[in-house]
Structures are given as C-alpha cells and as structure tokens.
Amino acid sequence: MLVACGAAPAAGEDEAKARAKAEAVLAQGAAEAKTGWQKGQSAPPVADTLEAEVACTLQWETWGMAINDGRLVDQVMAAMPSEIQLKPAFDIHGRWSEKALSRQDAAGGDPRPIFEASKRLRPAIEAAFDSAFTGKPGALEAYVEKLSACRNP
Fold first, then answer.
1. pTM above 0.85, yes or no
2. How far is CA 24 from the centre of its chain?
3. What's the distance, Cα to Cα, between the start and end of the chain in Å?
C-alpha cells in the first residue's frame, strides 16, 4: 500500500492512471483501518498478564516508530482514525510501558521477563505490521484491530 501511494508510475502507465491507482489503494487502506479500529472497540479487555502488556506495548511502539520514521506517508496517515496518529500512539505506548514496568517492580524489579517476552513477541508483531502494508486484503484491518484492542492500558 505504501509503495502504491508514493511510487512513480510504472513503465507504460500514465500519471493519471497511477494517481487513480494510488487513490484506490489509499481508500482501501482507510476503510480497512476504520473497520479494524471499530472491530477492536468491541474486543474483550486485554488479559492482565505481562505477555499481553508487552504485546500491546510493542504493537503501539512499532506503529508509532513507523509514523515517526516516515514509513507511513502523510497520505496514508491522513486516512487513518485520529486515535492512531503519532501523539496518541506514543501516549498509549507509554501507558502500556508504564504498566509493564509497574508489574516488573511489583515482582522484585527483575527486567528479564519483560526482555524475554519482548524478544519472543517482537518478530511476529513486526511481521504483522509489514504485512499490513503489502496490500494483502485484511492485513491492515487486522493490525489496526489489535491496536484498537490495546487502546486502554
């Protein structure tokens, strides 16, 4: 999806067709993001476990860093729900991080459980993020649904 929105026209493709294609991809992405956010709103509360807290932290960290690094082009972000823009993303990430760190402190301050959970979960979360922007139908919706389910630490 990102490639289609920011790429130069393919060989033999005129600029108007390329623009129309990019707009269609953007519209599909916006619809998936909105649907995913709505679906996540009705998800059950996130489990009260370190693993779930770390997963939510990583979901929001990956999303926020992608925005901050410019991997999510402005055209894409403009179509996304306001709740998943840069500031809310980092605010939510921070609250999940604080919750996990509070759990760590309550358990004696050992950082290994958070580190191990993060190391175990990060590859799948990053792969899901990467998949969300390949144009694969439903992948962006699924990622944003997880963000929405993790909206309230």
1. no
2. 21
3. 30
Query: For 6-28, what is the mean pLDDT?
Result: 72
Domain that holds residue 30: 2-149
Q: What angle do CA 139, 144, 147 make, to 5 degrees?
A: 135
Going by C-alpha positions, the residue among 61, 68, 53, 55 that lies closest to residue 98 is 53
pLDDT band (50, 70, 90) for residue 6: very low
User: What's the burial of 105, exposed, middle or buried (CB within 10 Å: 0-12/13-18/19+)?
Assistant: exposed
23-63: pLDDT as tens digits: 887 778 888 888 898 999 999 989 999 999 999 999 999 99
CA distances to 8, 22, 40, 57, 117 from 135, rounded to whole Å, are 17, 11, 20, 25, 29
Q: What is the DSSP letter of 3?
A: H
User: How many domains in the chain?
Assistant: 1
